Amino acid sequence: MAHQAGGQRAVLRSVPETPEAQSYLQDYETLLEAVPFPSVVFDRCWDVVLANSAYAALFRTVGPHPTAMPGDNLLRFVLFHPDAASVLGEHEPGWCLPMLAQFAAALDRHGHDPALQAIRRDIAQDPIMEAAFRQGLPHWVRTVGEAAVEHDGAVRVLFHPDPRRGPTECRLVGDTPKTLQDLGYTRLTMVLREARRPAPPPRRRSTDRRAAGHLSVVPAPEA
User: CATH says 19-200 is which class?
Assistant: First the structure.
């Protein structure tokens, strides 16, 4: 059901077993597709369950990645994809750090989940991300306050590939009905605003030069 960026469908990590839940998701997919703004449904590990065409269009210029495509796992895309900052403006304070904080909370609640543990191992294998998670994140939360961690209501910068949109802002709206909540899913919609002209998006980072795009909450590694 999940639309991969580029139009392909991703393979779901888990599918509700009951016919009623499956039927509900099929109808909800139809509803989601009618929304003109990028909208996505994901599970507690940020694996994408449903995403509409507007979501796929937002990430249509993103290059391939073996584990961090936006149509597969939203958290992995934000943390690990070298193209993330080319779409998600103000990537570190607006997207990366809030989602790291949400991941830390999910790990506290569901630490046994193998998908969460796999993400934690990948963070640990990245020295910059590990330092941000262990040292930079607690300092950032103390500085900005717990409210900055929440997505709902936040205004974030986007670099939309559609030239009619271009650099713009979106209001993140969390609108998860009870049935989705009962299934363990969350819905997030990016309500696009009129185009504005912030600073140009950063160049795409080469995966072998990660230090050039290090998180500012931790010092860059010495050469």
Answer: alpha beta
